[in-house]
Write a structure and sequence with these properties.
This protein is an alpha/beta fold. The chain is built from 7 helices and 12 strands. The chain has helices at about 15, 25-35, 50-60, 70-85, 120-130, 145-150, 205-215, and strands at about 5, 40-45, 60-65, 90, 105-110, 130-145, 155-160, 165-170, 175-185, 190-200, 220-225, 235-245. The strands form 2 sheets. The chain has a 7-stranded mixed β-sheet with strand order 4-3-2-5-6-12-11, sandwiched between helices. A 5-stranded mixed β-sheet has the order 1-10-9-8-7, with helices on one face.
């Protein structure tokens, strides 16, 4: 069976299958971090299905969601429309796209940076810096090296539900993990349809990220574990940086 690009079919199921992430608490924590600064406009890079874009919009920020996956953007726009949340959504690759206007802050939440190839990280951070106004804020996270090495690499992940079954075969590579994802989606006639897609995530350490930020015009304000946890034992590491003027 032909393998498709990441999120070609997973897009409409992603938030549903990640309902154990406690998006509500997560988004409110991020909002508390942003509230320390005088911000109005934001760009949510790798917005995916748009959960955080919508949460920030509800808090009063004028948001633009950006993603490389057209299927993810379709889901994000449809969901925002259903929920009555206004927002702009644009298709683009942050490693290649120079934004036509500037924002007060940029976010990249839930592994977005892990999807950026290592030889494109500087380009991504440079474009993000150029998308920020004077003193602009960059808030983002990565999945930690420990999480990849100890919990994801060379495992099989399964989530079996009445309407969809998710299976991921996770293979460790030198610089990351390749995930071969198979979905069985229930059709209206009761039969299940199989689709396959490939995801590639790269392992980044705190030092590599901090060096890349500083090299591309940022001042690092803080590094912490997920929701303020100890960064040395957390599965996710959060970064708060400021554009250096």
């Amino acid at each position: 069976m032909e393998r498709q690009a990441a999120y070609a079919n997973l897009a409409k199921w992603f938030e549903y299958l990640n309902d154990d992430c406690d998006y509500e608490n997560w988004s409110q924590y991020l909002i508390s971090r942003l509230s320390a600064f005088p911000l109005r406009t934001g760009l949510d890079v790798g917005c995916g299905g748009g959960w955080f874009t919508r949460a920030f919009t509800r808090k009063g920020y004028a948001m633009t969601g950006m993603d490389i996956s057209p299927e993810m953007l379709d889901f994000a726009q449809e969901t925002a429309l259903k929920e009555g949340v206004r927002g702009e959504y644009i298709l683009g690759d942050i490693t290649k796209t120079k934004l036509p206007r500037r924002y007060d802050f940029v976010t990249a939440i839930n592994d977005c940076v892990n999807y950026i190839p290592k030889n494109r990280l500087d380009a991504a951070f440079k474009n993000i810096k150029n998308a920020l106004g004077k003193g602009g804020i960059f808030l983002f996270d990565i999945s930690s090296e420990r999480k990849f090495r100890e919990k994801i690499a060379n495992t099989v992940s399964v989530d079996d539900r009445d309407d969809v079954t998710y299976i991921a075969f996770n293979r460790e590579e030198t610089d990351g993990v390749t995930m071969e994802v198979t979905l069985f989606q229930k059709r209206k006639d009761g039969a299940f349809e199989r689709t396959d897609e490939t995801h590639r995530q790269y392992i980044y350490t705190e030092n590599v990220i901090v060096s890349a930020l500083e090299r591309n015009g940022f001042e690092v304000l803080s590094v912490e574990g997920h929701l303020g946890e100890d960064k040395n034992t957390a599965d996710r590491i959060g970064f708060l940086a400021k554009r250096r003027d």
